[in-house]
Amino acid sequence: MNDSQPIAENKQTPFLSPPLDSEATRPEPSGLFNNNPVNLAVLGELAGQNILSATQFTFDQVAELCKLAAVLEKIEIWPYHPLDGKIVVTAFFEPSTRTRISFESAVHRLGGKVISIADGTTTGQAKGESLGDIGEMFNAYADLVVMRHTETTAPEQILDNMRIPLVNAGNGSGEHPTQALADWFALLKWKPELAAPKLPDEPKLHLGILGTPGSMRAVKSFLLLSLLFKDHIAKVTVISEMADPFGEDVISHLTEADIAYEVTNDIQETIADLDVIYMNSIAFLGDSYKSLDARYKLDSNSPLKPNAVILHPLARLNELDTSLDKTPHNLYFSQAHGAVFIRQALLVATLGRLDSLPDLEHAGKLADQD
Ligand code: CP
């Protein structure tokens, strides 16, 4: 905590995304940090770390990242410029709308600087340069790299040569760990009690996943991160046309977590029982994409539980109809908007700048009074 820096007492409007102008679910962040201060010591564990897989996080790290993100969503952070002097490279060797821009927005709002590679073909890759050699250069030009690549082995290819943290922003059919953080940030704002040990009378959630964890990286990372919250989860149901949608790696984590799960190819038999529905449209198969089976489509006439919420990492195709956008089932816009703040929290922690933040408890209380 930097006591030498004043708390922003000004009443300027804090940065919040524009209102959704609809019934879409947009949970208030304060529920996550009121009477529950952020534990900076837990977040200090992330300093200098590569962020490669959802499996690397502890429950406490995810809960504290989400609490810090909730404060950052409520306060004006720009006067403190916690990433002053830091340079982040966003190296995207595959298209992105949300991930690259939300990371870059996060860095800018924290007072850092960005070098942006929006298209890998503008790098030496177009001339046959190896990722290892590109990584060696990144050490000299930046303090952290956020990389997305079509190849699942891309992090392995670059890591040997890197001496600054690497954040995996999606590697082929591998993982998308910061998307999973954004997913759970949305869920913890929706139900802040999930960020604490489960109380005896608290109902457990039935989690539904429309997709293929074995080949959809966002789905895989969401499922793997969900295992940290297993005490709050009654069951995971995966709805997929594949008999084995998991793959060996995911199965071993499911088995180790000892969580109840089932697979079905019939969306109708289970949809009305789900509290949270996570869906995605695209499986990454090397250089090509495979869309979700046409049977698996939700719209405002789908027989959802009244309080059920839908998460989708986006981009969507036909599986998530726009008729759901203005309904309370829509948590996916909140999920996408919150990505800026969870990525801010992650960057401040991995770049070792937690001590440049204001007094979070005081700042959060002030913001909540506004
Ligand atoms: N959620 C997500 O990864 O979106 P983009 O592909 O637009 O980055």
Automatic annotation (TrEMBL):
Region listing for Disordered, in residue ranges: 1-31
Q: Which residues form a coiled coil?
A: none
Q: Which keywords has UniProt assigned to this entry?
A: Transferase
- What residue spans carry the Polar residues bias annotation? 1-15
Q: Which domain of life is it from?
A: Bacteria
Q: Please list the GO terms describing molecular function.
A: amino acid binding; carboxyl- or carbamoyltransferase activity
Does the record bear Transferase in its keywords?
yes
UniProt cross-references to Pfam families, sorted A to Z: OTCace, OTCace_N
Family designation? Belongs to the aspartate/ornithine carbamoyltransferase superfamily.
What this protein is called in its record is: Aspartate carbamoyltransferase
